[in-house]
Amino acid sequence: MNRKQFSWIVVVNVVVPLMVGLFIYLVFKPALLPTPLKLRTSLPGKNLFIRLLINSGPDFCWSYSFSSALFITNFIFFRSKLLALLTVLLIIFSEVVQIFLPRYFTFDWVDVSAVITAVGLSFLVLKTKFIWQSNMQDG
Fold this sequence. Notes:
By secondary structure, the protein is mostly helical. The protein has helices at 3-28, 48-78, 81-96, 109-138.
């Protein structure tokens, strides 16, 4: 894999999800920020998909980005199944820990589901990409 391909993988799987999650958070949840930006748009509160996107979308994006960064590091430097498993557990734990800190966080099973989905998707996308790249170099 050349540097351009690697950079593209990092941008698409790490940087873009971070920016999308930040955008959703800034635009649709400005009241939760210390200095809210007044970009809030009005969306129908009855649409389930839009509510899920606004409420769990940032968690999904950030979990995808973080897990992608860890998986990329693992696939390139370590190729360890244990490290991949620890990545999954760490990211899921970071969401579940909210149960024990209700003063600071709001625990939500939908967010946990979004995080698990994001981690799984990240693993599948990157594993497929890195296996495909290594097969292309070998063959």
